[in-house]
Amino acid sequence: MKIRFLVILFYCFVCFSVYAQNNQADLRLNTVVIDPGHGGKDPGTVSPDKKTYEKTVALKISKEFAKKLQNEYPGMNVSLTRTDDRFVELMNRARFSSNKGAQLFISIHINATAGSRSANGFSVYILGQSSNKKTDTYAFNMEVLKRENSVIELEDDATVYQEYDASPEAQIMMQLMSNAFREQSLLFAQMLNDHMKGPFKRNLGVYQGNFCVLRQASMPAVLVELGYMTNSVDLEVLRSDKKISEITDNMLEAFKEYKSVYDASVTTGTELPVRPIEEGRNAPDTAEPVEENAAVVLYGTQVLASSRLMSDDDHFFKGNDVVIIKSGNIYKYILGTSEKLSEAKENFSVLKAQFGDVFFVEINGDKVSRK
Fold this sequence. Notes:
single chain, alpha/beta, five-stranded antiparallel sheet, 39% helix, globular
């Protein structure tokens, strides 16, 4: 038992060392692996009418997201764990990512529930333990975990996962892997959640769970559940090319914000701004519609997101008036604001020429959303 534990501990150390070595030359985020869930003999969740499969939708979304990432960042290395309808074992998905030297791993899935067709919405997971076994949130997490981890039963040799059990050694190993990349994983998960305002009606929040595919990853990693296959409204979204384009646009905006903060952090040595997980704030059976803030709505151009509070007369803003909105521990800097949409869009054209990597936003009270 002690020997096995030492081997596991050594594996954690090697994974972390390899990750660090791969990034010594350029610490900025430049290698991403997208993992379309399921595939081949594993269809994943299936729509009630048996016409739509999770494996197909996950692959479609992953390919479109990868294409948009590549277009936005031509020099970035973007890879998929599968590019067609084939079965890929969980261990091989993680191994593929490690071989690519990935600095971020994103696993794409579609949710489902057997008990009710009313559950709907978007959720994000990182590696970890759901803390309160007495809450509905814990039961919700366990349902998702059991379904996503059940793919092991389809693999030729499931014994390779036996070392990841409920023993104290396995729990310590999982905690080590979780802590190694927790801040980066959580930051990206929170940004994904913040940007996914639509087309889903409900953001279920950020959770942590003991997912095998995340447990094997030796880099920051998240698993996203893009709506419910068993909900008619979400299913309509997942069957729409236009809505899928909106989903991948939102994911791209989240990635852009994450890359901006991540790159600034690794090049300056500053800490990443991460909010604590508040599991269950929008759990499927307790979620309530979020009322819009009644404050005056402004439109503007976001030019920067940073963990550092900058002065509004900082030379970075080139003399432009700036609105600073705090979101968790992140400060968002917005220029060219106006209550008139047309005027703000005119300002956007000018600011884009000045700053380059910017995007148009709506400010509603203390909430900033992509337009």
